[in-house]
Amino acid sequence: MDVIEPVRWSDDGAGVRILDQRELPAREVHRDLRTIDDVFDAIHSLAVRGAPAIGIAAAMGATLAIDPGVTDLAAARRRFIEACERLASSRPTAVNLHWALDRMQGVARLPADSVATFHEAMRAEAMRILEEDRAMCRAIGVNGASLIPDGARVLTHCNAGVLATGGIGTALAAIYVAVEQGKRVEVYADETRPLLQGSRLTAWELSRAGIPTTVLVDGAAASLMQRGDIDLCIVGADRIARNGDAANKIGTYGLAIAAHHHGIPFYVAAPSSTFDTTIRRGDEIPIEQRSGDEVRCGFGRVTAPAAASIYNPAFDVTPAALITAIVSDRGLHRPPYEFSEFESRVSA
């Protein structure tokens, strides 16, 4: 599989380089983010997206607030904390964003000899977050591959692959590892309205990896199940509550209902950084409401009248009762779910 790095340091080390996912699949455009405003806009506009990837981008990006050439350590630490607080407001639902920034702020409060050593410590912590995510993705892939039989026809929603993480993905990691093991896997990718992350991103990266992929509009998923053409569903998550309720891209809940009706296993895959033990149930998860223009004229063509109101939540919550198993880097979790043993990932 070609190496895809959605987030890394810029070549000169003074910025954060992202693969601008708004441009895919037509063009591969890499952008260097040089300021906190650049990082905020990239996360908010979905130039970089996917719960683990935005956590990594925020952690790396927050270091741009530190000027290692200045001498006032207290002022540098203040500017860094302020940058973390600003980046935390860029998107509300994905817990990895807040988890990564909370972790960075925890390290920022440790003693440092100078602004230069403070800067080095923060860059090192951001790299640890990236490397840990790579390891978690690989572990998710190994654990999840055990759920995928040879010859499986797998339905997924949105993008939970390389583009969404620091490694080989979450939901798609299971597919990549299954293929590495010699299994034949065919993937059906929901188009994922309104921004088409399934057709633009999932189909793009799976095709690059040589994995057979069919794109379908979201409304066709239930009929595909009815025909008997789907063996299992696997999706990612942006936040998982203590009871196993899982927030993921809008449309996931309807997919889970259809899978349940047709007796098809429905799996959720996510790293341990996505579990939020401070939240008991899914109805406590904040759901991001995005601009109506994403629906009304998301790709440059007006598709709804200006007078019409738009309902555009970025995520929905799938109840734990509809989830056959949750795959994490720590193993396979079966119902009844109780994740209080997971370390709390985000401050109140």
Question: What keyword list fits this structure?
Answer:
3-stranded antiparallel β-sheet; 348 residues; Rossmann fold; globular; Four Helix Bundle (Hemerythrin (Met), subunit A); 7-stranded mixed β-sheet; alpha/beta; 2 domains
Proportion in helices: 25-40%
CATH class of the largest domain, named Alpha Beta
The rough form would be described as: globular
Beta-strand content bin: 5-15%
- The secondary-structure element order is EEEHHHHHEHEHEHEEEHEHEEE
- Number of individual domains: 2
Name the strands of the widest sheet in spatial order: 6-5-4-7-10-12-13
Please give the largest β-sheet. 7 strands, mixed
Topology-level CATH name of the largest domain: Rossmann fold
Nutshell version of this structure?
This protein has 10 helices and 13 strands. With 348 residues, the protein is of the alpha/beta class. Helix 2 packs antiparallel against helix 5.
Overall description:
With 348 residues, the chain is an alpha/beta fold. The chain folds into 2 domains: 7-138, Four Helix Bundle (Hemerythrin (Met), subunit A) (Up-down Bundle), CATH 1.20.120.420; 147-333, Rossmann fold, CATH 3.40.50. It contains 10 helices and 13 strands. The chain has helices at residues 36-44, 51-62, 73-88, 95-108, 115-145, 171-180, 197-208, 221-226, 252-261, 293-296, and strands at 7-9, 16-19, 30-33, 152-156, 185-190, 213-216, 232-235, 239-240, 246-249, 266-269, 315-318, 325-328, 331-333. The strands form 3 sheets. The chain has a 7-stranded mixed beta sheet. Strands 1-2-3 form a 3-stranded antiparallel beta sheet. It has a 3-stranded antiparallel beta sheet with strand order 8-9-11, covered by helices on one side. α1 (36-44) packs antiparallel against α2 and α2 (51-62) packs parallel to α4. The longest helix is centred in the middle third of the chain and has 31 residues, at 115-145. It is globular, with a radius of gyration of 20 Å. Mean pLDDT is 95; it is low at 344-348.
